[in-house]
Amino acid sequence: MAYTRIAEVEDIPEGMMKKFDIGDLEITVANIEGNFYAFEDRCPHMNSPLHQGKLEGREVVCPFHKARFDVTTGKKTANPRILVPKALKMGAIMAGIRTHDLVVHNVKVENSDIYIEH
User: Is the pTM of this model over 0.85?
Assistant: First the structure.
């Protein structure tokens, strides 16, 4: 595993997230109370771009189905909310899709530079 410099501390204000591409990886970095956390940008439910969601405290909320994840650990904290009626076949298919925890990456800050391990 190697570390890649992706940004400076001031590039990601407190309470905000920013997406970065490192090779084929899409990684979002969140600043929570001055600490930085990195996770793969795609929701493990339906592949939604998490950087377009909301950061609420330590949780990122998926913009499509409202699944929630603790960005400090990657753990799922709430299942998706499926808005399609289960009577419809698509609703039943979507409801059966398992939602896994996020893949998280180690972060280190040196001086004012943010590095992601990948």
Answer: yes
Q: Which CATH number fits domain 3-108: 3.30.750.24, 2.102.10.10, 3.40.50.300, 3.40.50.1100?
A: 2.102.10.10
pLDDT tens string 11-21: 999 999 999 99
- What does DSSP say about strands 59-61 and 68-70: parallel, antiparallel, or unpaired? antiparallel
Whether the Cβ atoms of residue 29 and residue 15 lie closer than 8 Å to each other: no
Residue 50 makes CB contacts below 8 A (sequence gap 6+) with 17, 28, 39, 41, 42, 43, 60, 62, 63, 69, 102
